[in-house]
């Protein structure tokens, strides 16, 4: 668990700058205090020319590498861990016997380009140079690491958590134009962040902080990763497999225990198959969900064929808030931690079953998978329509993929913003499938999946972000992409018997629709049953925890949530949301309603200087 805040003090290198840093650290702890029963450790990091940083950390459980290394006045801090960094540094003859971060920072200071090109995202590196004392900051070549840059009213800062800016007295305010897009397609596109004066750092950014200014350079690794190479299909598969395998094996040297997520889909199958084939120490297969869930059943079948242990985690009703106020308390904590970035339907249980946010676990995930399978090409029927209609069809699909909630005056802005993202995807001569896959990588995977990546407090290892995996995808024959052949081949290399276990989307969708119809048919007695259970618990003096599916739970809270949102006459969301549409959409949008209420409360608290 990491919280990072960097700024330049107007007091330069005087003692007053250190006083300001201590005050900022105290305010940062108070801002995030609702998340912790025991506060995280706090460090003040210094650079020349008034550069100061505050770093809060709770160590990842059962992970044996530090995120911060120091030597004299020099230091290096890793924001997220890059498993392939060790391999890239050793290949260039760099001695890592005394640690990895300081040698890595020295190498980045000399020539960052080869390391940004070969080290997999997401990662961020901040360091004070042993040679010059100047501060440097770099992010990965994809821009996957969560780093926000605040520049407004002659104030500047960088943080990895949005609400951290309030520790410097900077107002954190919603940007309606960004949220109009976010509520349409589920993510903030390009470098938009959803808050005034804030943006995400561009991919491959390296900053050196000089006396009165900063030297900013950008290195383009994406052109190399997405260039088509003259590789055969077999060569693509072998290169991708070896990169993923090496990353996981390198990381396994530094954990005491880890879990490999296995949802049944092909993304997680690849990483889990490496764990099974390499017999990694203390690494269990893991799935979260009810045992009757279709994907849980597929995971169980895969684990059985591999002869591996599968941990099925379903926290059940005790993680479900029992009242509206309890729900909103959880949502407030969720938006304080991650500012409304991931899917809001998951906020209801945030920290409900635990007292605090801990350091978290080491988790192997299939994140950054999804690119290279023709996701958008299939949905907009690319093969059946003229190529010149591709952009319009994609924008139409994105704008209609979920219930529209924003006011009609924002619709042209939403479409123009998404169109600009598509134009960037076509830059460099990419067309058709390649342009859609680039859009998938930079927009949905980098921004939408990235929001979920940083919602979890532990170390989420993403081996599918390896540069050679991306190179293999964009070199694979286009005709094979929609079949998912590359993903299936990679999973079968690890565990050949898994090739016979099909992941049938249509079948799963049919089962989900059948379950939804059953839920709708039993809706009246579900609510009567829950009312009766609540009364019995009150009479017996026991706590009441609803026994509902997720959809049923949101529906029970629906009317109260919408009433709570409409209660305020001057609600900042009224500029973005069409409240009539919100009221008529039912439980489909209630996660977003809860998020809006939680953001209202959280921003009011931190902007009113209640943490001062």
| Intertermini distance | 24 Å
Q: What's the alpha carbon Rg, rounded to whole Å?
A: 24 Å
Q: Helix count?
A: 21
Low-confidence stretches: none
* Derived structural class: alpha+beta
Shape, per Cα inertia axes? globular
Bin the strand percentage: 5-15%
Widest β-sheet, arrangement of strands: 2-3-1-9-8-10
How many domains make up the 3D coordinates?
3
What's the number of extended β-strand segments? 17
What can be said about this structure in brief?
The protein has 612 residues and is an alpha+beta fold.
Structure description:
- The chain is α+β, with helices and mostly antiparallel strands and 612 residues long.
- The chain folds into three domains: 2-219, Aminohydrolase, N-terminal nucleophile (Ntn) domain (Glutamine Phosphoribosylpyrophosphate, subunit 1, domain 1, 4-Layer Sandwich); 233-373 and 444-510, HUPs (Rossmann fold), CATH 3.40.50.620; 528-607, no CATH class.
- Helix content is 43%, strand content 14%.
- It has helices spanning 15-31, 83-90, 101-110, 113-118, 176-185, 222-225, 233-252, 266-277, 294-306, 324-338, 375-379, 390-400, 411-426, 432-453, 467-475, 485-494, 505-521, 523-540, 550-566, 579-584, 590-607; strands at residues 2-8, 41-46, 51-57, 68-71, 74-79, 124-128, 135-139, 148-152, 155-159, 198-200, 205-209, 214-218, 258-261, 283-288, 310-313, 362-364, 459-461.
- The strands form three sheets. A six-stranded antiparallel β-sheet has the order 2-3-1-9-8-10, with helices on one face.
- A hairpin with a 2-residue loop joins strand 8 (148-152) and strand 9.
- Helix 7 packs across helix 16 (485-494), helix 8 (266-277) packs parallel to helix 16 (485-494) and helix 13 (411-426) packs across helix 14 (432-453).
- The longest helix has 22 residues, at 432-453.
């Amino acid at each position: 668990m990491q919280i990072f805040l960097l700024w330049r003090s107007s007091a330069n290198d005087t003692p007053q700058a250190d006083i300001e840093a201590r005050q900022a650290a105290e305010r940062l702890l108070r801002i995030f205090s609702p998340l912790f029963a025991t506060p995280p450790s706090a460090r003040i990091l210094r650079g020349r020319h008034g550069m100061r940083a505050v770093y809060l950390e709770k160590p990842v459980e059962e992970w044996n590498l530090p995120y911060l290394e120091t030597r004299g006045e020099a230091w290096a801090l890793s924001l997220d861990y890059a498993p392939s960094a060790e391999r890239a540094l050793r290949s260039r003859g760099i001695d890592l016997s005394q640690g990895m971060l300081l040698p890595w920072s020295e190498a980045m200071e000399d020539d960052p380009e080869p390391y940004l090109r070969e080290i997999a995202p997401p990662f961020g590196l901040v360091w004070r140079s042993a040679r010059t004392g100047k501060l440097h900051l770099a992010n990965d070549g994809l821009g996957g690491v969560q780093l926000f840059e605040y520049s407004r009213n002659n104030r500047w800062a960088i943080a990895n958590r949005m609400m951290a800016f309030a520790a410097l007295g900077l107002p954190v305010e919603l940007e309606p134009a960004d949220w109009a897009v976010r509520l349409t397609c589920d993510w903030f596109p390009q470098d938009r962040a959803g808050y005034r004066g804030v943006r995400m750092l561009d991919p491959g950014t390296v900053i050196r902080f000089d006396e009165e200014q900063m030297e900013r350079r950008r290195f383009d690794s994406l052109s190399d990763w997405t260039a088509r190479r003259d590789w055969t299909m077999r060569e693509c598969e072998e290169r991708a497999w070896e990169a993923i395998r090496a990353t996981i094996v390198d990381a396994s040297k530094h954990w005491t225990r880890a879990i490999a997520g296995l949802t049944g889909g092909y993304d997680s199958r690849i990483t889990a198959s490496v764990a099974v084939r390499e017999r990694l120490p203390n690494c269990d297969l893991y799935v979260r969900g009810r045992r009757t869930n279709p994907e849980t059943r597929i995971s169980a079948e895969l684990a059985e064929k591999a002869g591996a242990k599968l941990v099925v985690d379903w926290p059940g009703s005790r993680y479900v808030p029992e009242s509206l106020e309890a729900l909103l308390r959880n949502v407030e904590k969720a938006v304080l931690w991650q500012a409304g970035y991931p899917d809001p339907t998951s906020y209801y249980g945030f920290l409900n079953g635990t007292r605090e946010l801990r350091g978290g676990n080491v988790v192997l995930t299939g994140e950054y998978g999804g690119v290279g399978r023709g996701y958008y090409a299939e949905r907009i029927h690319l093969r059946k329509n003229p190529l010149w209609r591709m952009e319009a069809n994609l924008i139409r699909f994105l704008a209609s993929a979920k219930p529209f909630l924003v006011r009609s005056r924002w619709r042209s802005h939403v479409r123009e913003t998404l169109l600009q993202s598509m134009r960037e995807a076509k830059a460099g001569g990419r067309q058709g499938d390649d342009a859609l896959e680039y859009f998938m990588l930079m927009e949905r995977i980098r921004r939408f999946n990235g929001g979920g990546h940083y919602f979890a407090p532990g170390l989420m290892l993403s081996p599918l972000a390896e540069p050679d995996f991306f190179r293999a995808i964009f070199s694979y024959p286009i005709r094979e992409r929609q079949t998912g052949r590359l993903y299936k081949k990679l999973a079968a290399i690890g565990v050949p018997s898994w090739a016979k276990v099909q992941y049938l989307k249509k079948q799963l969708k049919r089962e989900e629709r059948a379950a939804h119809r059953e839920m709708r048919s039993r809706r009246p007695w579900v609510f009567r049953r829950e009312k009766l259970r609540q009364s019995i618990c009150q009479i017996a003096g026991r706590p009441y925890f609803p026994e509902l599916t997720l959809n049923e739970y949101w529906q029970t809270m629906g009317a109260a949530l919408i009433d709570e949102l409409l209660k305020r006459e001057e609600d900042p969301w009224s500029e973005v949301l069409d409240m009539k549409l919100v009221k008529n959409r039912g439980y489909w949008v209630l996660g977003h309603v809860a998020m809006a209420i939680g953001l209202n409360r959280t921003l009011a608290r931190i902007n009113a200087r209640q943490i001062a």
